[in-house]
Amino acid sequence: MTATAIYAAGAVCWRVIDGRIHVLVVHRTAYGDVTIPKGKVDPGESLPRTAVREIAEETGLDVALGVPLGVSRYPLPSGREKIVHYWAAEVSDRAVQRSTFKPNSEIAALEWVTVKRARGYLSHQPDVEILDTFAKLLDQGVTSTFPLLLVRHGKAVSRGGWKGTDAARPLAERGVQQAAALVDTITAWAPRRIVTSPAVRCVTTVAPLAAATGIPIKRDEGISQDAWESGNDEVRRVVGKRVRAGKPAVICGHGPVLPEMVREIALATATPLGSYVTDAAGLEPGAFSVVHLSATNSGSGIVAIETHAPRA
Questions:
Q1: Pairing of strands 193-196, 217-219
Q2: Residue 148's beta-bridge partner residues?
Q3: Which is nearest to 147 in space by CA: 222, 220, 89?
Q4: How far is CA 202 from CA 170, 182, 260, 270, in A?
Q5: DSSP code, position 137
Q6: What is the pLDDT of residues 177-236, one digit of tens each?
Q7: Residues 6+ away with beta carbon under 8 Å from 60
Q8: Pairing of the two strands 68-75 and 81-90
């Protein structure tokens, strides 16, 4: 992040009303304008977490992030640049029913409108441009999506400094910090499954996430580095199961195995192979890639991929 810039995050919240896609716009009290829900990053907070938190605070809606929609950059009167990251976020009927929103000094009203009407409502051109990106997804028939989050285990103790088996090699102190830092960011996508290589460094990487969410950890030898090095891995089985399940899931593994994971996701969704496979799999320890897939058209290919660096 640039030290002089002001960072913020938000989302185009959407739902189906009477068979048509509607998006949420907020009427701001203080500014007298209409915008997409968003807000500034709190100290030490990740951008995805900011988006989810700000939506909850402004609208009373609990959401999970979907496809990334891009970044808006514009100058402020102070001369500093404001940089806003956006995602799509499908809003469930349950979230609407449980919303705690009340008009306040910041937000005067919420309104669900069609995409066409939202274009005329929004007060700021950068918001319109983000909405147009969302509209392109609708035109492509890509609405509901689910993420597979591919995590490379945190920084481990070096092989040279470890006398036990490689599978038993633990995380270094920095790796433990990276594992703890993952929770804040990854929960923004509300994963429902956690699958990991049984290697200690992988299990320990997802342990804080499991503790925070209550999701049990499933260890699978099929994606271990030992199995991969011996040619006995079952990456296709493990990845294929997660693609078919259609639920947000975390898969934690090893650097050498990650390219095969991304490749199998591409093959399972009829996505042409390209350089993005290498880019998405080229993760440093403690980093992760989010692969977004269609929840309704499994053969429509990978919708988007975003990569997040380690935060410790």
A1: parallel
A2: 249, 291
A3: 89
A4: 9, 13, 17, 29
A5: H
A6: 999 999 999 999 999 999 999 999 999 999 999 999 999 999 999 999 999 999 999 999
A7: 98, 99, 100, 101, 102
A8: antiparallel
